[in-house]
Amino acid sequence: MSSSRFLLYACAFWGGAVVLVVELAAVRLLAPWFGASSTVWTHVIGVILLALSAGYALGARWAQHQRAAARLALALFVAAGLVVWMPSLARWVGEWLMPPGLSLDRASNALGWGSLAAAVLLFGPAALLLSTLAPIATELLQRERGGSAGAAGGQIMAVGTLGSLLGSFATTYWLLPEWGLSWTYRACALVLVALGLAMLAHARTARSSAAWSVLAISGSLWATPANSSLPAGTRLLEAVQSRYQAVRVVERGADAQLERWLQVNEGLDSFQSVWKATPGLLGPGYYYDGFALPPAWSQRESGRWNTLVLGLGAGSVWRVLQGTLPPSMELCGDGVEIDEAVVELGMRWMDLEPSSQLRVHSGIDARVALQALVGPYDQIIVDAYANQLEIPAHLASAEFLELAWSRLAEGGWLCLNVGAFGEHDPLLQAIGETLAQATNSPVLALSIPFSRNVLLLARRAATWPAPGSPSFSAIQPPQLAAWADSMSLAGCWWVYQPSGQARLSDDHAPLEALQRASLNFAQGAR
Amino acid sequence: MWVTAWLLCALQSADFQSVLQAVQERRWSAAQLALSRLEPGLERDQARVYLHHHAGDLRGAWKHAQSALAAHPDDVFLRGRAVELALSLNMGAQAQALAAKLDPTGPEAAGRQAAQAAWDDEQRYQAAVQRARLIALLGMGLCVGVLFWASRSRSR
């Protein structure tokens, strides 16, 4: 193989790899401001596909040029300059398009349009230039060795796709976990510059663009990595990039008021786990306290309370239960958290202490874990969210809920936390009715005071206490009793009865559409 | 806070005072019971909004406040409470509209300022969305333009 032919294959290979690295890391880059929801993924992929399409057409035109090799080198250098600055520009673009201080329910429009605009600004130009490489390389290959255009194009596409394959695996398993975002993009830029220089030597032209490119990369070494700003009054304790998301622990207050939040991605005004120095009830606005109601209503004074928490986070639920169970009762069970980094941060900052009694299963999907964990449990808590606000479809289907129901002991409780905006929220209705149908039992919905969370409760082979009845609020500790009493007000609770068909199934669970409808409902309800 | 103080000082019925007392003691069922004894009218509307607001049922309280304000648009307590609820629910536009009718020299001036700040945030948010929409559409339009321009040139 001649050196120029090798160089063309290298351009195709590394061009394909860099496009995939940029694409996969793009959502991480945007996540501090816009999250990593399926909406953001769709926008990033859509913009990059549009840019690729335009770039292929542009590359086809440039390929007809006499000095096509010089164009190829130019595209490599300019793309390198764009790629290397992406992490720094992301901060500026994110703060420009996403005003700070927005609540999650107010942010839907800004998240949608903002992420689309950010993808256009940050990734569109580089993707467009990188996609010009393939047609130019195809043309140069055919010019050099003759033969059919189809053969040259097919070989370039094959090599480019192999590069994309490498880029996709390397990004998730190696580049982002080992190097982080900034150095991943810098590495991509360096590869592009190296290819550009090689092409430059081959084409003997475009030296000024090479100089600019090297200057851009050098300048980026002093640029700061992207991160969303912290809310006023909070301190950052630790931030990591996990396999799934950006995770950070922040702290606010002092002494008795000290509390820590574990936040993922954009954060906004939401949290994945909360820690206070003393185990027990967290106080107004925290839905975790609601998970202390089933053991209190069960009126058991001793023995073991066996729990399964699907979506353990950093273990907030267990700390609430540890502080509210009667002293003679022992908390035990299993906690499942898909993101290992969340568990590690929980152990470092939020007193999560796995033991033989409280077993933590990290790095495993909740549904997969449920297949293996047979119980029987006194309480199963489903608190699994993806990308901050999305309930994973496979954790809301009738099949999943039936499986969880089968893992309960007699008199056991199935508890779901749903972020929703009242009784008529379409997302909540779908999940509540599905739960009622899957368990063939009435489901109690409790609107958590001072929050946008609703707790869904179903009980196997027993009934839950009726809101307003003495048994509903005659519980210990007293703070929990008062809290339960506040939820017995008219409009703060309602019931889903089993009737008709389950609305969400493995075959059809339009959670994304329901989530959008929920946010629209919240705005319309105003 | 000022609303609570005003309310407690106001001359109200015994049942109304019972609602307030139960709310302060966090006896929510008792408060609900006392509320049910009140005759329909302004006093009952005020007590219901107060009860649901303090119990943390913000959306419920907001709905009650809206319907009560429709019947009693000049009631300062209901309006002040509605402003607070709108602010708690991140509804800057509604808070600002409600607060505009509050006396700027009265004790509710703080509510007006908070509502104005929330309204400013709302404006900032709307501007950001418009900016993003413009950029997204322009950028994608530019890409489509390049696509057609490059394709047409090649076919000549």
Task: List the defining traits of the structure above.
heterodimer, A: 526 residues, alpha/beta, 8-stranded mixed sheet, 4-stranded antiparallel sheet, 16 helices, 12 strands, B: 156 residues, mainly alpha
Largest interface: A-B, 51 and 39 residues
Q: What would you call the shape of chain A?
A: elongated
* Main β sheet profile of chain A: 8 strands, mixed
> Quick check: average pLDDT of chain A?
86
Write up this protein.
The complex is a heterodimer of chains A (526) and B (156). Chain A has 526 residues and is an alpha/beta fold. In chain A, 52% of the residues lie in helices and 15% in strands. The longest helix of chain A is centred in the middle third of the chain and has 55 residues, at 149-203. Chain B is mostly helical and 156 residues long. Chain B contains 8 helices and no strands. The A-B interface holds A 47, 50-51, 53-54, 57-58, 60-61, 64, 96-99, 101-103, 105-106, 109-110, 113-114, 116-118, 120-121, 124, 128, 284-285, 421-422, 447-451, 468, 473, 482, 485-486, 488-492, 525-526 and B 26-29, 32, 51-52, 55-60, 89-91, 94, 121, 124-125, 128-129, 131-136, 139-140, 143-144, 146-148, 150-151, 153-154.
Question: Which SSEs are present, and which pair or pack?
Answer:
The complex is a heterodimer of chains A (526) and B (156).
Chain A: H1 3-34, H2 38-63, H3 68-97, H4 108-130, H5 133-145, H6 149-203, H7 207-220, E1 234-241, E2 246-252, E3 259-264, E4 273-276, H8 293-298, E5 303-310, H9 316-324, E6 329-337, H10 340-349, E7 358-362, H11 366-372, E8 377-382, H12 398-406, E9 408-419, H13 426-439, E10 443-447, E11 453-459, H14 470-473, H15 478-486, E12 493-496, H16 511-524
Parallel strand pairs in A: 5-6, 5-8, 6-7, 8-9
Antiparallel strand pairs in A: 1-2, 2-3, 3-4, 9-11, 10-11, 10-12
Helix pairs in contact in A: 1-2, 1-3, 1-4, 1-5, 1-6, 2-4, 2-5, 3-4, 3-5, 3-6, 3-7, 5-6, 6-7, 12-13, 13-16
Chain B: H1 2-9, H2 14-24, H3 28-37, H4 42-55, H5 58-71, H6 76-88, H7 92-99, H8 109-155
Helix pairs in contact in B: 2-3, 2-4, 3-4, 4-5, 4-6, 5-6, 6-7, 6-8, 7-8
